[in-house]
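W.,

You were right to be curious about this one. When I first looked at the sequence I had no strong expectations either way, so I just let the prediction run and decided to look at it fresh. Below is the sequence, 430 residues in total, followed by the output.
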Amino acid sequence: MSSLQVIVIGAGAAGLMAAGQAALGGAKTLLLEKMERPARKLRITGKGRCNFTNTLPLAEFLDRFGAGKKFLRPAFARFFSSELIAFFETLNIPTVIERGGRVFPAENRAQDIVDALIRWAHKCGVKIQTQSPVKKIVIENGRIKGAELDLSASRGERFIPADAVILATGGASYPATGSTGDGYRMAQEAGHSIIPIRPALVPLETAGNVAERLAGLALRNVAARVFINGKKRLEAFGELEFTPSGVSGPIILAFSRRIVDALRMGEKVRISIDLKPALDEEKLKARLLRDMEKFGKQPFLSALKGLLPSALIPVCAAQTGIPLKKTSNQITPTEQKRLRDWLMDFSLDIINHRPFEEALITAGGVDTREVNPNTMSSRIVENLYFAGEILDIDGDTGGFNLQAAFSTGWLAGRSVCARPQPSSDCKGED
């Protein structure tokens, strides 16, 4: 066995994977976690179901990371979704594939994933030490020497020597789970540049009181477009929902990365929702004519009940200026045109985004230009490695970000040890 001493900081998805792989390679591995138990954020992902990867082909999968795809390619080439699914199957976690290629544990319990990872790490020889916040990484002459703990909040020795450190502290989203951005400070103190962090996959706030009136309403099978300074920049089809302060849901979360950056730049953002995307303007016009004729002397309200969710009807009336008590056969061509335009362009002005506490992940982080994508090692400090959300990589919702955490953790753990020597009795190796 190697005498290599490795410290992994942060016991989330990336940290647990990295620690296990380092131990498989023969390193004496200590996993430090500042919270009272590991993987608190992983326990709540996917609304407690843990959508941990996606079955999209590699090229399409990488596209979900925007500018980060080039950096992630080597990690995914070594350990991708098929390997991750097989890994969990060796840990007796069968999986299911759902709409959009999203992969979940078959029992729909994130806790099962967490428990399996912890058991696996222990079996591989990892020592997990909780309630041990790291104050700083100790570096001498550009080389890792160990880690210094914050004794005001931890137990044991202040300084722990190590030959290598893997920094896997996560981002700044859901800070109650322990992701409070500590790793950014440690990386910066080590000499690394930090791309400004901001919430990603985050709900948005809208102007006015429309969202408050519609809170709880989910719109399915709608098309949405994002206009920034009057120019269409994004478009998607799917589902969104209203919150007391704005909008959320799959479409909105996917848009949020670009919108957050636009808002930070002071740009004007508007979301346009097409409530009837299956109908072009002529088909919608014909549909409305039929409805007005069908409901005749009945109130306009009756016609709208077949077009819209009930909560949206008063908003429609207010924004189109068409009285709900007016009979359907009294709706003028001009009013029908206003209704058509509104149905195809229900607009919301975006004025802000929700805070890190409500963001699924963090955008920004350690500048990937300062990290070797083939090993996850620092280009600045010898034997310092990075894994997971601390890096400036963020993808869409749908299992992409957890795969990135597991893949970068796998690669960092393997790279720490020059010659990985998997133990024959430790399940989960590739």
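Here's what jumped out at me. Confidence is low (pLDDT under 50) at residues 419-425. And, maybe more interesting for your project: Residues 281-346 form one domain.

Coffee later to discuss?

I.
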